[in-house]
Structure formats: C-alpha cells, structure tokens
Amino acid sequence: MLPARRILFVHAHPDDETLTTGGAIARYAAAPGTVCAVVTCSLGEEGEVIPPELRELAPDRGDQLGGYRVHELAAALGALGGPEHRYLGGLGRWRDSGMEHGEGTRALTPAVLHPRALAAPGAFDEQLGQLLGVVDELRPQVVVSYADDGGYGHPDHVRAHELTTAAAAARPDVVARVFHAVRSRSALDAGLAGIRDLPGMPFRVPGPDELPSAPDAVVTTRLDVPEHRAARVAAMRAHATQIAVWEHADGARGAAGAAGTVAFAMSNGVAQPLIDVEEYAMASGAGPTPTDDLFAGLD
Q1: 131-148 as b/e, with b when 16 or more CB fall inside 10 Å?
Q2: The model's pTM
Q3: Which CATH number fits domain 5-182+278-285: 3.40.50.1580, 3.40.50.450, 3.50.4.10, 3.40.50.10320?
C-alpha cells in the first residue's frame, strides 16, 4: 500500500530541483507517511560551467557535463533528504535543449535543436507517456513544476510545464493538485535588499527587473522552510558546476547551522538571495486553496 501523502516534482535539469523547490523537497522527504519523488527530464548537458578546473566538461569541449551532473544531482538529493528519483525515459534519454540569451535573464529556444533535445517538437507524446508511467507508479496527489513560461523562458522548463499539465489532465483520478513554483516580486526585492550592501559579496547586484519574478497576486501558498536552510545550501554546493554559493561571514548562524545570510549566483555572476520562504501558485486542484502546506485539505 502507498503512503497517505504522495508528491512529485517535475524538473528540467539537475539543479532546478534545488533552486526552485529545495525547501519543499526537504520538508516532504522528511515527513512521515509521505512519498516525495523528483523527475529530472535531462542531464543538463548544455549548462555553462563555473569552476575553471571543470570547464573541459562543457558541451563545446569534452561534452562530458551531463555525466558529471548525474553525480552532482545524486549528492544534492542526498542533502535534501533522499527523495525518490527518476530520469524521464531513463538516464540520458533526453538531452538538455540549451538556450539562447534574450533580454536580461530571459531564455530563448535555440534555432537548431539536438535530435534528442527535450524540447524537440516531435518528442512530446513519447515524453508524456514516460511521465504518465511515473504517475501511474507513484500515484501522486500533488504535482509541482513551473508556470507556463518556465519561470524565465527556457524551452526545457516550458516543456516540463507542458508535460506536467498534460499528465495531470490525463490522470484526474490520481492528481488532485498542480502547483507552479514561483518567486514573487516582493519576496525577491526583500531578499535582494538583505544582501545588496553586504561587504565582500563576490557577485554583481542585479538591476531592476533583471531577475525573473512573478506578480504577488499569483502566489497562493507559502512554505516556511528555515529549518531546511543548511540542507538547501549543501544541495546548492553539490551543484558546483552550476551554482556559486557565498555565506556572509558575520558570525550569525541560522536554523540547522546554516549561515544567517546566503547569496548565490549562476554562471552570469548575478547575485540572488536564498529566501527562507518558498512560494507556489496552485494551478488546479481540489479543496480549499492551501496557504502553508501543499497537501492541506486533502487528508
């Protein structure tokens, strides 16, 4: 028999699970009577590599980044409490589609896609069948992914959204709720205010509207996850090719031993705050809209 609570997170690349839903994963992976599972749709082969000593892994060099990120993801999931994990279609079936850079941090679909690219136009039906196989196995009442623009336009995030939406619609007897992971403008602004003037921060402070955010009005559910901060930081550090982490050396320690103030950056070097509240928008679902628990009202 399956546990009473079952939740599935559908993500495009290794590191997305940590950056957008790491607190929720850690919370529900530790919750009694709960199956917490993550689907990763690609190996992130097209990512840009931050540490100079690892740059030969990059797709335009050794093209070994995907295999390396498999190990990064395993370490990150371990830090987040060891949720169940599946690769969509099996390890390496779908390749990171890559992206072109638009305005600010917006992503655009490349003009030419790899034949195995996750965002390939003719691949959707096969991918949906693979995701439905996971849904039929785990029978999650709650499924979490991205909003329709994928958060910032990346074609693989958009495809993950489309697959999640279609899978939930195909299994209404199983999936009771779909959530989109979002970050509100007010939460982002408050987080940036907390790191902007810290001495010694190695990252560039973003300009107005440079980082993606969602209108406050779309947020339905906020999860307080300060007790999982140390796990989230450890998971971010596990994704060393993709995420640079900086902890303010002020001597103030937060919950579970993590530093009181943490900033991180992707390969663009733009500072982002680690926020102790994760925000979600309920896209569809049964029961009253939950405010602080993705399962609230389903029990």
Answers
A1: bbebbeebebbbbbbbbe
A2: 0.94
A3: 3.40.50.10320
